[in-house]
Write a sequence for this structure.
């Protein structure tokens, strides 16, 4: 068994989306509510952090250091977890320094995280500097890479896939937002381990499909190794679509706004502007283009992110 702390509210529900399915006139849609994992407004990072935090504890960590964009959901969940376990937390954030704290960044500050600002292209170097400085000051830091997408983080989503099977979940397709690839990697591994016949489609929110496929395959293979399974996953088995990146990471476009509206008005369900809004926009477009069969069952894996709706960068543009 791989060490794990228990903090997430699991299993997350699977719910049908009958009104949205009817409006789109297409396949049957379902949602897996990982926006409700329970830690500080939830999201997919909570599952990963159950395993990554256990790893940090095994290293005797007294401080968590991680990195993300200003509205990073991963940073918000990490900051909350650090607070809950009495650890210090430093976040390396990239992007424009907000004039007023809002959305995830407001919550980072509420949880007492320290913030170091940098530029996107410099974040690796700054992250290493912050880590080495903390180490030399005797603070026992533990570094969590972007999105907690390590082999250990991906293991969490192999377990999440098992949870879906144990819930009696059935689907021909799973669709989710993919970025640092750990979530999709874990699901792909879970599907392999259980002999599932459906397909798992990642909608890339930022990287080219080839990059995401390679990274999913690499992390899935490494996560299998962590579980003691000799499974090799190759990039050509992975489904990733990168046609919905639009103007780039975190740039809200018409498609995301429409997807957020459709889910809100027909199901009372919230999506986020950066990840699930983009993935849902891709899903909606693929349905309209006849990519799926009309009797396909599609599970939209909701990965969270809703606090970003209230960010000053997005809120004024949603209506
Ligand atoms: C981090 C994140 C993702 C992407 O997950 P990866 O494992 O990095 O691919 C998707 N949705 C939300 C809301 C996220 O915060």
């Amino acid at each position: 068994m791989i060490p794990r702390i228990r903090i997430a509210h699991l299993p997350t529900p699977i719910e049908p989306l009958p009104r949205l399915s009817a409006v789109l006139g297409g396949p049957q849609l379902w949602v897996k509510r990982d926006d409700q994992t329970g830690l500080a407004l939830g999201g997919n990072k909570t599952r990963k952090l159950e395993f990554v935090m256990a790893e940090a504890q095994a290293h005797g960590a007294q401080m968590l250091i991680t990195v993300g964009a200003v509205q990073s959901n991963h940073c918000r969940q990490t900051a909350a977890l650090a607070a809950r376990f009495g650890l210090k937390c430093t976040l390396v954030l990239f992007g424009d320094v907000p004039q007023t704290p809002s959305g995830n960044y407001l919550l980072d500050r509420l949880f007492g995280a320290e913030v170091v600002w940098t530029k996107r292209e410099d974040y690796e170097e700054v992250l290493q500097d912050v880590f080495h400085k903390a180490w030399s000051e005797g603070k026992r830091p533990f570094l969590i890479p972007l999105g907690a997408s390590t082999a250990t983080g991906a293991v969490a989503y192999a377990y999440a896939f098992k949870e879906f099977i144990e819930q009696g979940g059935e689907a021909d397709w799973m669709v989710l937002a993919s970025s640092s690839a750990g979530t999709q990697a874990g699901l792909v591994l879970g599907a392999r381990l259980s002999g599932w016949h459906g397909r798992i489609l990642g909608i890339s929110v930022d990287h080219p499909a080839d990059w995401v496929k390679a990274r999913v395959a690499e992390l899935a293979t490494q996560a299998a190794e962590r579980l003691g399974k000799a499974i090799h996953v190759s990039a050509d088995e992975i489904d990733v679509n990168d046609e919905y990146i639009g103007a780039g990471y975190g740039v809200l476009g018409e498609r995301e706004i429409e997807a957020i509206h459709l889910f809100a008005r027909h199901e009372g369900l919230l999506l986020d502007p950066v990840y699930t809004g983009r993935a849902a926009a891709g899903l909606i477009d693929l349905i309209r283009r006849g990519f799926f069969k009309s009797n396909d069952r599609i599970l939209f894996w909701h990965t969270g992110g809703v606090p970003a709706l209230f960010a000053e960068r997005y809120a004024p543009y949603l209506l």
